[in-house]
Specification:
Layout: E1 2-7, H1 12-24, E2 27-30, H2 36-39, E3 44-50, H3 59-68, E4 73-80, H4 87-101, E5 109-115, E6 117-119, H5 125-139, H6 148-156, E7 160-162, H7 170-182
Parallel strand pairs: 1-2, 1-3, 3-4, 4-5
Antiparallel strand pairs: 6-7
Helix pairs in contact: 3-4, 5-6
This protein binds flavin mononucleotide (FMN).
Flavin mononucleotide binds at residues 8-13, 50-54, 79-82, 116-118, 123, 127, 130-131, 149, 152-153.
Length: 184
């Protein structure tokens, strides 16, 4: 039985979480509202977390769940604007997850990254201010020093962009199917 636990501010991560739960015939919940005992009954947990300035608000909670139930299967998907198929970006994204959940948990979880979007007019005052500051700082970097994430953020500043696409969940579904078949 699958449980998808997600954190999403503006719904991009939530859309992926709901599609995964639908395809896997599992349950889906916001990670904020979940207690340790709520996850006990599930065999596999899929964490979905949106990425803000490279960080994960619920990294500690994810680590706590993995430590409490080390024998479950764990998957993680991070959602941001940048394209994770760029090798450098994939490494940065992976390093950021490691910093958030702890290197001791990394061999128990499979990582995936999907592209989200941004709806600038809907952003909170705090997020707009953060984006304004990031945009100013990133534009001061030389072109050759800008990362994939930097470029994606500069491009998205002030706009409404939506990269969410159901097909992006396919590799995660495939990894789960391989795990099931491998164990049967
Ligand atoms: C303040 C702020 C910081 C962000 N930082 C990054 C970032 O470092 N890299 C990136 O690719 N996207 C970044 N994003 C884009 C979000 O990851 C993207 O909007 C994501 O789809 C949000 O998902 P959610 O709607 O589920 O919260 C940032 C967005 C905001 C508003």
């Amino acid at each position: 039985m699958f449980l998808v636990l997600y954190h999403s501010n503006y719904g991009h991560t939530e859309r992926y979480a709901r599609w995964l739960a639908e395809d896997l015939e599992g349950d889906v919940r916001r990670i904020e509202s979940v207690k340790l005992e709520d996850v006990a009954a599930y065999n596999s947990i899929i964490f979905g977390h949106s990425i803000y300035a490279g960080s994960y608000k619920y990294g500690k909670k994810i680590a706590e769940i993995i430590q409490a139930f080390p024998d479950k299967k764990y998957y993680f998907f991070g959602v941001n604007l940048a394209d994770s198929s760029q090798i450098e970006n994939k490494k940065t994204l992976t390093d950021n997850v490691t910093a958030a959940i702890g290197s001791e948990n990394m061999d128990k979880i499979q990582l995936f990254f999907f592209r989200g979007g941004i709806d600038y007019p809907r952003l909170s005052f705090m997020h707009r201010s953060m984006m304004w500051m990031m945009d100013k700082m990133l534009k001061m970097k030389k072109d050759s020093e800008q990362t994939e994430s930097d470029r994606a953020l500069i491009q998205a500043y002030g706009k409404k962009i939506d990269f969410v696409d159901r097909r992006q969940i396919d590799p995660l579904i495939q990894a789960i199917q391989e795990e099931i078949h491998g164990n049967s």
